[in-house]
Amino acid sequence: YPSGNLAIVVVREKKQLICIVQEDKPRNAKIQAVFKSDGRSTCYYPNGAVWINMSIQGGQYLDQEGRRVRRWTWPNSVMSSGPHVPLSPIFISLNRHVGVRILGQDKIVVSFLAMGQQAKFNVGTKVQVSDVGQLPPPTWLGEDELLLLAFRVRILRLFDRLRGCLNFPSNEQWDKIKPPTYLITQTLKILHLCTTSDISDELRSSVRAIVN
């Protein structure tokens, strides 16, 4: 950056390359994006929430509250279920100097612009899956991750109820109003993870009590 802080770094980890975008801070700079040559990439909002998440099958674009705005699948990718959805070009600005342009699986460009000069990094890669049996194994969440997800949903639901109280202070039925659809969906996903993850019955009961 013009400030002298490191903006973009490319490192090699075993057989893959990783491109990392950092915010413009001298210390404890947050990661704003990670692009891996194995086809997995993630961009983050300034508040740390996931903005764009991509894999070898496709990707999704989320808002700052975690709701999916759009999703897509790469051409020739194999999905276990659901229709193939083409990508519409995406342009986002991670900060005032760094932007990301997504036109295809092998056409993902990180642009850096400062003091009238520009540098571009092509971080796209052509990774295809020709058979469902070759898909990478699912990532199982640990106990800490499940608890964090459960508490996050719980807090968001409490905030939603608080907004209901502030907007309709005289409404005696506000506690009977259902939470937003995206919170219901996230709750169902967490409950499903409880049944598929290798966790203790005690933790499973705790997670269910938190989100219900």
TrEMBL record:
Coiled coil: none
Ranges where the FAM194 C-terminal domain occurs: 1-177
PANTHER family: GLUTAMATE RICH 6, SIMILAR TO CHROMOSOME 3 OPEN READING FRAME 20
Name of the molecule in the record: Protein FAM194A
Source organism: Nipponia nippon
